Structures are given as C-alpha cells and as structure tokens.
Amino acid sequence: MTKLISECISSDTFNSGFGYKIVVRNETSRTQIDKPELIAIKELKENGIILEMPSNSCQKSHNLSLFFLNPETLPAKIKIPDTGRYKEAVMEVITKVEHIEVNENKKNTIYVEMTFSQIDIKRWKKIMELYHANQEKIDGMLLNQFRRREEG
Amino acid sequence: MNDYFDPTDKTNKAILDFFVGKTWLLVNSSSLIRHSIKKTLSQLGAKTTHLLDAKNFAEALEIIETKKPNFVISHSTINDDSAILLYEAHLNVFSNRLQSGFFVSSDEISQSEVAWALDYEMDGIIAMPLNGTSMFSTFVKAVERKVNPSPYLLKLEEARAKYLESNFAEAMNLFQEASKLDKNPFESFCYMGIILLKNDQVSEAIILFEESITCNPQYFKALKKLSEIYVQEKNYKKAYDLNLLMAQKYPTSPERIPDLIRLSIINKKYEDITNYFKLFQTINNPNLKIQKCLSAALAILGKYFASVHDTEKGVEALLSAFQFSNGKYEILKSITQSFHELKKSEILLDLFEKKDLSGWAKEVQILYFQALNDASADDNKVIQCGEKLLKNNIKDISIYKGLVERSINLKRESRYIENLVLEANRTFPDTIADFEIILKKHGLA
Description:
heterodimer, A: seven-stranded antiparallel beta sheet, 2 helices, 7 strands
C-alpha cells in the first residue's frame, strides 16, 4: 500500500482521454486530413464507424482510408502517402461514406457515418474490445463504491 | 442479440420489464448518435414511442419539464453548457431515483470526468465512441440495483427524495429508519451527516461521515465530504490520510492536484513535492484545461521552493507555471511574488517581454510593471510604463509606489511627486502611511 498521495498520481491523471487517433485519406477526392485533433471517433460498429470531421472532408459515396494511430507514439509530423499503406498506422480500414449530417452545435464540422469495405475483422474486434474494456473500467469505478453491500 | 445481454433469457425478464415501462430522453447534437442509442434501448425492451430526443439543452429542458422522462442520457457538454443543468432539472422532476436515472456521454473521459460523475452520483458515464455492447452493459449494470430494490434501498430513496425536495427534517427521520434496515447503511449515515452540516452541527456530522466510511471505505460522497471538513477544521493530518485513501481507490481529478500539494506542504510530506515536480516535467502537450491545473500546481511548487531558498528548482517550476498559465491572473500573481522572493524578477520580466500581453487580462499589466520595477535599473522605462498604465485606468498601489520612487531617483519636480501621492491616497486611502515612509526615506516628508 502506498504511503504518499503523490505515489498514486501518474501522468495518466493528466491524460485527457483514452483511445486511438485517426487520420484520413479521401481516395475519391484525393485529399487528406492529417491533423488527428480535427477528427473525433463517435461510434464503433460491427461493420462501420461514425466520425466527426471538418466540413467538406467528403461526400456521400466517397471512399476513405482511415489510419488508426496510437496516441502515445504519434509522429511529430504526420505525412500520409498519396497511395498505399501508412507505416505509422496500427490499423487501416477502407470505408464508404453512407450518410453525412451537419453538426449544428460545432461550426464547420460534420458527422460522417461510413461502412467498411475493407477491414481486418480480427483486428477490428480487438480494437472494439479495448474500448469496451475501458468502458468496463469506468463502470467499475462508478459502481464499485456500492459493492460493499453486495459483499456484506 | 448481444453477447452481453440475451433478451430471451428468462433471468433477464425483470430488467426487460423495467425498460418496457420507462421513458427516455436522449440529448445529443447528432441524430446519428441518438439513433444508435435508441437502437440499443429498443433491444433492451424500451418502447420506441417512449424514446424522446433533443439536439440541445434548451429543447431537453423543455421535454424534462413537460414530458418528465424517467431517464436522461445526455452528452456532457453542448455549446459549452454543462449537462449538470439538465441533471438538476431532472432531479427536481424525479426526486426518487429508483424509477429514474441520469447518464452522461463524453468525448474525453478523463479522471476529472469520472470524479465529476461520482460526486454527483450519476447512474453512468458513457465513453465516446459509443458501441452497442458497451452501452448494453452500462445500462443494465446501472439499472440492476433499481430493478429489485431491498427494503433498505426503498427507504433510502424515499429519504433521499425528501432531501432533494429540501424537506430535511422528514429526510432525517427516513434516513434514520433506513439505517436500521441494513448492516452497512453508509449512504444513510452520509446524508444524515450532510443534513447536520446544514445545521452547523459539524462535530456530529464528522462522526456520521466517519461511520459511513467505516461501513464502506469506498463510498466516494462520504470520503469527499469528510475530506472537505477536515481541511475546513484544519485537521490536516486526517485530511491527508483521507485523501491518500481516496487517491488509492479513485482517479484523482487534475483540478484537485493544487489542493493536494498544499496538503503535502502543510503535512511536511516533502517527498510528495519532489515526486510532483518530477512528474510534471514528464507531461507533454497537455490540453488547455490540464494546462490550467498544471500551472496552478507548479506555481505552488515554485512558491514552496522559494520559501526554502531552492532557487534552481524554484525558477524551473515557475518557468513552467508561466508557460502553462495562459495569462490567468491569479496564477501569474503568485508566480510574480515567488520570482520576487527568489530575487529573480529579471527572468519573469524577460518572459513577459517575449509575450504579447494584449490578449491577457489587463491586471496582468500590473504584474508586468511589478517585474519591470523589480528588475530594471532604467528609471525612465519604469516611469513610462507606469504612466501609460495609469492613463489607461489600470491602477494598483505598486504602480504609484514604483512611480514615486523612480521619480525621486530622477529628481523630478516635487509637484509631480506630490500629485502622484495625492492621487494614490485618493484611490487607495489605506496606504497613506506607506507613502509617508517612502518620502521620509528620501528626505521629502
């Protein structure tokens, strides 16, 4: 058991969140979004994903390559190649844009729903499990305080 | 079908029945996200006609008032407004939480978000990105304790409802009744403590909070309340020990770090200071919210190092504190004072001069003047700066004092100096004696 409060505080205390960062190459319009801070992952589905992205990133039916990056090893300068794999990415998927919704509460952003057209299902499941484990950890923190009674 | 929850399994019938009878309000700016949550709730048995949605807090508040949904699932912030306002409105409508609940979803689940949900005793916090399996498990786990409540839980919620309605006398009686229905009635003890605090019965309240923690050393609300009271009562040793217990069990919100450092300094836990100092040096690219916490924490460390004359560490901490301050006046004020104590104001002056201060609070200009007056031998430059601030109606006693002293150095006309003193005395009447000392020192009194 620790004796000092500082021993319970780590750099995690100052991390703003959990999860992968994403950069995008739009294969249809030949454009890129190489600033991961502009993209937020909103939902992970079995066969697709919803992202919040800058307006004009894509149109319905566009094909996008999504590159998942580990936030702890983010390169100082992200340079996505014009074609092919991006070697810094821990995972890459190709998607088709199904639906676009304007975000009325955040200027110049849209929600983009897409389905996967090329994906390594096993790796995708692993990523989903990682996020699920994080949610379980959060649930545990909120509910553990009542566990005493169940044990009692 | 979901891996986590099988609606066809008979043992899950009670939970399904619970969901069938409840109305839900989903608050999110995206209809795509609201649609996904609706899908999960429908799979859990909620009727589609019982699923309401709102794209902002104004719409949500109206629905809470008029349609009184049992449960609310809201994004934590929309347009910089906090979901707390919805939570409070929902508590007003549903004071008994057995038939209701509140969940927040959040993009960045940081330690402070969890501490926030714990503090408000919310039913759940949903980390973005959403996914069906996680939502299933979060909703089911959160409502499980509401589905078949024990006699204790029933009485406890009845009491808590009275408490939320501010009917404290009746709430107290009900909490007392509830505490007899369970061998670990930690929530009842805690709420009774809170009611006693409202009547200024501090020592009686402390006993109840301590009993609550004895029953359950994990109960966040009691831990937090007791920690606050120990600090208020200046019982710093107990406050430290309790905060250590909390830090072992729960994530510490970055906003609490400055207070924890103060607690370590008071309790002479100097190893903590070294540990914090080392830790802060490893944090890269903090966001704005974290920068504010870090800056405040580093300013306290700088102040501490200045007090023990450790110039090297003091300057290092203060430099980082300045870097993260983003112009926050209170923090910069402390930084300025510490640099002054360390007799290193020239470093601060250099920092100020490299920054564009125009976007910072006008009071920061006063701190710049103080650093300049402290570090610069150029009387004319100090006078020019001070006069400019007064002209712009930025006034502080330190500006007048600096101007008077520098004017004396430059042997300016006595009428000019007298006018400055008169103006200072008019603006800051309590400081007449200070100027008398300055003038006397220079043989002008």
